[in-house]
Amino acid sequence: MSRIGPALAAAREQGRTALAPFLTIGYPEPAALPNLVRALVEGGADMLELGVPFSDPLADGATIQRANFVALQHGVTTAACLEAVRQLRAEGLEVPVLLMGYYNPILAYGPEAFAADAAGAGVDGLIVVDLPPEEAGPLQEACRARGLDLVYLLAPTSTAERVALVARQASGFIYCVSVTGVTGARSSLPPELPAFVERVRRQTTLPLAVGFGISRREHVEAVGRIAEVAVVGSALIDVIDSSPAREREARVRAYVEVLAGRRGAARGRRAG
Fold first, then answer.
1. Is 60 a catalytic residue?
2. Which end of the chain is more exposed for a tag (fewer CB within 10 A), N or C?
3. Is the CB of residue 142 less than 8 Å from the CB of residue 115?
């Protein structure tokens, strides 16, 4: 069994919304990952989503697209991402890790080989943005054989039939995309979000995560009223981008502390 279920159960028992920050592996440079991950965990991350760089990240907005480009310029490969997770585990990382990306690198690697190597490296689950459940059979079987959760995405436009199909196949949790658009920090969450999440809730007992557009503590609180997990990506990369290298980890830690409710927003703004 992956670490995802126990981590979400612990957050639920503590009355908290689980926080899942996203980083692109290799951004802003490969050597930065261990310190950034440490800052995220110390700040209050319950699990981590680590992006596998890809040349055509069509579900992502400008911020994460840029992070993908920079990571690829650094020569970060799929194999390097697996090795990065292996090294994080060797250094004592205990929280769940999901690799998030696109199917082409996995297909090129080989779904069976990728699942085996991911599990061996200490990965707990995969989020494959452009892999529909109808075409996920080979990877789904490989993940099940290795104890990996395969997390699917649903959008506000997903039909009842698609929601039911994802509910049958998913494990770990289901990722509810808050908007019919790409990733990116936004000032507010759409008013239609609660109804969409409730529509998914009626067809599954799995925990639900909400991502795309979350950037503030009040967003996390709003997500917590309807779902179990808040995913933060573009806004976190914005914090990294705006921080001098010597202050990067401290500002990332402070920002996550604000998101997790461990410090006030004013202090978080001064720190980041």
1. yes
2. N
3. yes
Among residues 98, 108, 57, which one has the least CA distance to residue 78?
108
Residue given tokens 């190597």 in the structure block: 117
User: What is the CATH number for 161?
Assistant: 3.20.20.70
Question: Residue 180 and residue 198: Cα distance in Å, rounded?
Answer: 17
Closest CA to 236 of 227, 245, 248, 224: 248
How many structural domains are present in the chain? 1
Please indicate, yes or no, if residue 269 is contained in any of the structural domains: no
Among the options 13, 29, 49, 83, which is catalytic?
49
Q: Which of 60, 124, 149, 228 is catalytic?
A: 60
Chain segment 70-118, per-residue pLDDT in tens: 999 999 999 999 999 999 999 999 999 999 999 999 999 999 999 999 9
Site of tokens 């689950």 = 125
Residue 205, number of CB atoms within 10 A of its CB: 6
Write out the two tokens for 222.
Answer: 């709003």
Whether 49 is catalytic is yes
pLDDT tens figures, 54-79: 998 777 778 888 999 999 999 999 99
Q: In the chain, how many H helices and how many E strands?
A: 13, 9
Is residue 68 a part of any domain in this protein? Answer: yes
Residue 270 maps to a domain: no
